[in-house]
User: Fold Dihydropyrimidinase from Cypionkella sinensis.
Amino acid sequence: MTTVIKNGTIVTADLTYKADVLIDQGKIIEIGANLKGDRTLDATGAYVMPGGIDPHTHLEMPFMGTYSADDFESGTRAALAGGTTMVVDFVLPGQGQGLMDAAQMWHNKSTRANCDYSYHMAITWWGQKVWEDMEASVKAGMTSFKHFMAYKGALMVNDDEMYQSFKRVGDLGGLAMVHAENGDVVAELTAKLLAEGNVGPEAHAYSRPPQVEGEATNRAIMIADMAGVPLYVVHTSCEDAHEAIRRARLAGKRVWGEPLIQHLTLDESEYQNPDWDHAARRVMSPPFRNKLHQDSLWAGLQSGSLSVVATDHCAFTTEQKRYGVGNFSKIPNGTGGLEDRMPMLWTYGVATGRLTPNEFVAVTSTNIAKILNCYPQKGAVLVGADADLVVWDPEKSKTIGAANQQSAIDYNVFEGKTVKGLPRYTLSRGVVSVDDGEIKTREGHGKFIAREARPAVNRALSAWKDLTAPRPVARSGVPVTGV
Amino acid sequence: MTTVIKNGTIVTADLTYKADVLIDQGKIIEIGANLKGDRTLDATGAYVMPGGIDPHTHLEMPFMGTYSADDFESGTRAALAGGTTMVVDFVLPGQGQGLMDAAQMWHNKSTRANCDYSYHMAITWWGQKVWEDMEASVKAGMTSFKHFMAYKGALMVNDDEMYQSFKRVGDLGGLAMVHAENGDVVAELTAKLLAEGNVGPEAHAYSRPPQVEGEATNRAIMIADMAGVPLYVVHTSCEDAHEAIRRARLAGKRVWGEPLIQHLTLDESEYQNPDWDHAARRVMSPPFRNKLHQDSLWAGLQSGSLSVVATDHCAFTTEQKRYGVGNFSKIPNGTGGLEDRMPMLWTYGVATGRLTPNEFVAVTSTNIAKILNCYPQKGAVLVGADADLVVWDPEKSKTIGAANQQSAIDYNVFEGKTVKGLPRYTLSRGVVSVDDGEIKTREGHGKFIAREARPAVNRALSAWKDLTAPRPVARSGVPVTGV
Amino acid sequence: MTTVIKNGTIVTADLTYKADVLIDQGKIIEIGANLKGDRTLDATGAYVMPGGIDPHTHLEMPFMGTYSADDFESGTRAALAGGTTMVVDFVLPGQGQGLMDAAQMWHNKSTRANCDYSYHMAITWWGQKVWEDMEASVKAGMTSFKHFMAYKGALMVNDDEMYQSFKRVGDLGGLAMVHAENGDVVAELTAKLLAEGNVGPEAHAYSRPPQVEGEATNRAIMIADMAGVPLYVVHTSCEDAHEAIRRARLAGKRVWGEPLIQHLTLDESEYQNPDWDHAARRVMSPPFRNKLHQDSLWAGLQSGSLSVVATDHCAFTTEQKRYGVGNFSKIPNGTGGLEDRMPMLWTYGVATGRLTPNEFVAVTSTNIAKILNCYPQKGAVLVGADADLVVWDPEKSKTIGAANQQSAIDYNVFEGKTVKGLPRYTLSRGVVSVDDGEIKTREGHGKFIAREARPAVNRALSAWKDLTAPRPVARSGVPVTGV
Amino acid sequence: MTTVIKNGTIVTADLTYKADVLIDQGKIIEIGANLKGDRTLDATGAYVMPGGIDPHTHLEMPFMGTYSADDFESGTRAALAGGTTMVVDFVLPGQGQGLMDAAQMWHNKSTRANCDYSYHMAITWWGQKVWEDMEASVKAGMTSFKHFMAYKGALMVNDDEMYQSFKRVGDLGGLAMVHAENGDVVAELTAKLLAEGNVGPEAHAYSRPPQVEGEATNRAIMIADMAGVPLYVVHTSCEDAHEAIRRARLAGKRVWGEPLIQHLTLDESEYQNPDWDHAARRVMSPPFRNKLHQDSLWAGLQSGSLSVVATDHCAFTTEQKRYGVGNFSKIPNGTGGLEDRMPMLWTYGVATGRLTPNEFVAVTSTNIAKILNCYPQKGAVLVGADADLVVWDPEKSKTIGAANQQSAIDYNVFEGKTVKGLPRYTLSRGVVSVDDGEIKTREGHGKFIAREARPAVNRALSAWKDLTAPRPVARSGVPVTGV
Ligand SMILES: [Zn+2]
Ligand SMILES: [Zn+2]
Ligand SMILES: [Zn+2]
Ligand SMILES: [Zn+2]
Ligand SMILES: [Zn+2]
Ligand SMILES: [Zn+2]
Ligand SMILES: [Zn+2]
Ligand SMILES: [Zn+2]
Assistant:
């Protein structure tokens, strides 16, 4: 059975044109005028865009004996509801656990996914076994490796481990990734704040100021440069980190930054809310920042110094959040956003004129598909590409609220925001998962997307590093000559 | 008659894949496997890329009663020989001349062109007539307007004129362009140098240091920001100007910079050559800079803060250059480069690992096609696009020299450089103009490419400027209230 | 008759120590323990500091047939009341008027001054006469030359005039100064705002955004660099200008910036006040900025990238301000501040920990004395220095208000601010002009302070410029050698 | 017995004037005209300046069972020969050794010193004992605490230790100092280079590129900011580190950088010398850099973003250097410079016009005296100050060479450089230690200079940190309120 999207305007990262799109067996098989199919989706007045890709989610993430509340089913349902057709989750091996063992656990969880997904592999500890498994991970299509510079005593890796791991990633043609906060300093500040009686959720923000993120970002960039590997910095939330990324890029380094939709549109005043629940629900790392940092992130998207808008979707219920009453450091870190990312970015970015529609597609989908080397299977409206598409109605409007969301949690950090610009249809490999606004996801339809290593950027970087590698000085005579 | 390019690897600004390309009547009509055509071009081992676009040429440019030596015939022949399939020249109205009159003169000259071309309109004087003609220019497809901040007493416009013109360009949905050097200061420094006996070609460089370019670039950016118009800075040659552009972009401004292949690969030491002719042949504005500035330009291409590589091709013979013996300020400004831009950039950029092949396509073709709003007719390998293509053989090598070049002049500023990476075939709207290395251009084949105004970037910028426009304060009571 | 200041702590730009100060005939004649004099001023619990120097005032400034309201009498009385013991005013020659003629007019006005003063000479037009008079100005002790880049059609000079004037100043060993705003663009924006009905005082701020100040600052710096002269930028109000200054300094250039106390402590929200008078009274150029710019200015003082805190005291009455009802461009530009500069800076700078007491002295007095080359006659607590001193009581407090100020105008832009830290005594060359809080100024006591040209910074800069001057290339044979 | 310096021009950090200086019992007792004393030193044609202070030496430093070759006798003799009258050495406690025990070992060594000296205390390990001893160190006048971010497995401290130590230093009112290189990455790069057969001294430089210094500098700054303590970065050698310092200062942070005379005047090409000894003798950390970095350091001194010129004098003989034949990582790190610092800086800084004579005094003496809080006892020409003076003859010239130096080693890294500007007399607390060019040092004359904690900068910083400290949000009702 074929499906045709008719009468729409195709908007990609670099093109805007009127054409119909014909889909068969999950693939785009034709783009052109006057196409016909077994089923017709009307895109009159709407944009036909590549479905969003959220490269940063934590679905059903293990946490203190329980799990983050959105699993691969509800999470991908929320994603599709908002126009996102692929998520990339993080495989988090336990201490001492092999990478491929952990990957299997994730594969077990994702069987219920409604849309496609891929995995980043996290380097949560370091040893010979990890070093070896990294090759297996790459071969299995998990070519990007996340490193935590924070969460001391748990996930954090030290600089020498990070160098060694980055070196390994570089040799394997993969992508190094970091959660960039100085874990030592966060731990010290946390202890100090608690000792001083600063125990509320606002102190979470005090314990991880922009400086500690900027520092860690800068450090990761240096280590990646020394190791000769491209670097992707997740959840870039502040000018300090953005500055480090800009400076690196302006030195020709291959570094990308990923602001979250939360940091683009919400600010630190949320933590000053007298309602503990309100504040605690916004606890995530990095925390929300002030307007100055927001402006910096928007400018980064406009100028290209920041590349991707993600969510770090990691949803905890109010009840879970309340683990941290009396001690902010026990509040589970994370907020939702999967359903809201694209409407929020359209409303605050495209409608205001900060971004063009093409740039919107680039930062929500195409750029990350290229960075993760799954373009043009994903992130494209091209013949042969997967039919992961969203028919975007720029006139459709709603007010965001927990009451009518897909996510399993009982609140929404964007509660009350009115967005204009919403999916009319969302297609996951041809399956109409949002049908004129109605959710019709198909549980288990989603497949794992394996990715190839060694894209062009890696090859170019390696060539340059070889060309500029240290050369020994030719010395004549005995090793030591006279004065 | 159809032509098929077989067995090649298509490389565009964002894709690399194996496919054949079928061409008919100057257009790409199919891209896929196992295509057949009346004529077959073998691309085995080669890349099939969008032909280059050089957005900055001065062919048969009037100069002191004569003309720059390369006209639209030899210039576009040189272009095609090097893989460039479109040039954008500058219509330069005389003082008091109407814009459309001048455009007609350019149309008369370009009838002999071997490849397609478009025009930027220069604002060389200011008045009601110019203001009016700007709309006609836009309607006639010349939507980009160049302003000279240098050449005092001739082409230079003042800040108030520039603001008014930029404002007009913005209102018309066009693109503002600048040659950014502080003409007042250049004139003062020139007079001082001559008075001090600094009359040789090296003093040309002394008279236009990076500072005067940086300053003017910064100023143009501010004026464009105030006028609400996107800005394109031609021949960005130095860190000072690049810094201003970066700073603007990082504030979310819509500004692009254009380094020339000369500034990327040649440096100021050329002016220290004891041979007057050698030095004088390298006289152009801005002059060549030192290695520090070169590094900055390369980093700009890598990071995206600079967008386009051009040539400012304006070829003068040694005899013409000698007008300036004894007075550097009379040396005609300009160098060639049309034939060498792409091989030089490939050799120094792609082969070293500074740029990926995709980035090469972006900065030689696709980016400027988007900026000038003629994408995807130009700059793309897509069905429906013009068959302006180059089949690039990365193993083909030569040593650049005046003896075997297409340009009409008697020297080459890249003389003696060995390049690796050259066109096997170049196609201008399907016409095989370089055929396995042999030049087979067709005089008069080239057509004028009209461009539409008001691309997405303009619309976004206007929306943002409206949103943030000054608002009067509502004051109660009489205009003036009490203390 | 001798005066001794006893039991205080001397605070200078680089020292803090307990000692008495003995004064005779207007000079400090001894500093040490247990000094005795005919009159004793008790400084117990107080700091004995160099009196403030305000390098930027406009007393009795001609304006539309009338004058700014504070003349040299009331202005210097206000100064002394606030701990400032010297002002530097601007001689403003009329169009075509000789510099020395104008200076004489200023000397006539200043006979009533209560404290010492010096003059900057303004270059308000350009011609041979001006060029010649500049030498006379330097010989007469007016070694600093102000240039207006704004006020088009009146005071504004163009880039070529500015270059020529700067060059002349450099040759004479003087100091170039600029009011840095792009006058062309201000004029265009003003016309546009008025045409759109934006006629209120808030539109004054809209007409001179930070961008136009940043641009002009950057331009002045480039021109000073080309001319080889040190540069002093008056009333640096924003990050844009500060950034340009920082960038210049970081390239080793000799450039200083002068934030005003108004810009450090008041912000643009003042213009949003619904009371027209309130807003109009704050109209000055540059206008007040937002908090981000304020933070930048404070950081500049802390880091040394900004050097001096001034006032640009130019007081107009409410009645005078009302010339601009219905047309903001007619509101006289200027605010007061002479009396409030030091208490405000102490309160917002020293009491908060942003500045040390020594840094307070540096930025209110010593730095400018060095820059203007009247140190250590002024700006010092040294034997032989003028006894221009303030005995500063850090515990003394008041609320600023028009009701109890010295200035002749009917309002105060700091109205309602409570300051802590005020003069107990202010001495002008030994004359106790504030006596335990009581004003006892002596009209006509103030003298003109002539300044020497060619301080060490000028000599160093000239040496460097000579060392790095363009050198002709030695060419062999006939001027033009072979290809 | 009194000594008078007659007919000279006194040059301090902020004054230049003709006066005689009278000295008694090691102190300046009078400054004025026509002074008389028992002994007269003629300063005709010379400058009378504060003797230099070198805040960074390692005399008789323990190293692999032996010691650096210059001890407190030869080291301070070299210092005085070059116009330096005070050195600050580093107490380096062994692992587990108490700080005060180590200090005693240093006091034992310094009994032979020819000039005054002070100590920085190094934090070479971390524990309760160290934490406690820090207070004793401060009380004993050692208020500055050095931390090594490099030398992994030996002196290096981790981020959490550094935070805790910085916090302690801040609480004690002291100064935090860092040797800023990322020790983890240096260790990794070293291992890699050795494994690849890069064993020569040039690989020392490859193992510690500017990036690792810039990163560590940036990190130290962040940690100091979080801990609320002023920071002094020793041996700032490159733009990367300077950039971090600038950025910090521009955010109002209290951070100083210390370039070495070696990095200002020598570059990385030294390591390319085919003579192993030549290269090995230049091995120090950080290594010499390229011209770009040199320019950055000079600009830092000019603009004030860098504050002090030091030497890191740590002299090893050629024989000692040869420990590292076949393995660069075993070459003892360190070069000389004590005797040459001031003549080299005068020649390359003042004579070229990069620095004024006053700035020369500031960066060689006065700034560090202020930073270390021993001003004006040291670093000043003031009545009551120690008579640590140099009579500087700007016409005196020599060629630097090992043959005629004071240092105990057999070579000089500045060998062959001609300097103009040398001491005619150097006085250490009144003792004429260089007498018309002849060395007449007095062994054991030097005394330990204890320094007070909590100077104005610390007090200001603490006030600001208190003012901006995190505040808990007042929440009403039960800890957790409703949704
Ligand atoms: Zn994270
Ligand atoms: Zn995450
Ligand atoms: Zn040009
Ligand atoms: Zn041109
Ligand atoms: Zn002004
Ligand atoms: Zn003024
Ligand atoms: Zn060190
Ligand atoms: Zn050291």
Observations:
- Chain C is about 35% helix and 20% strand.
- The longest strand of chain C covers residues 389-399.
- The mean pLDDT of chain C is 97.
- The first helix of chain C runs from residue 72 to 81.
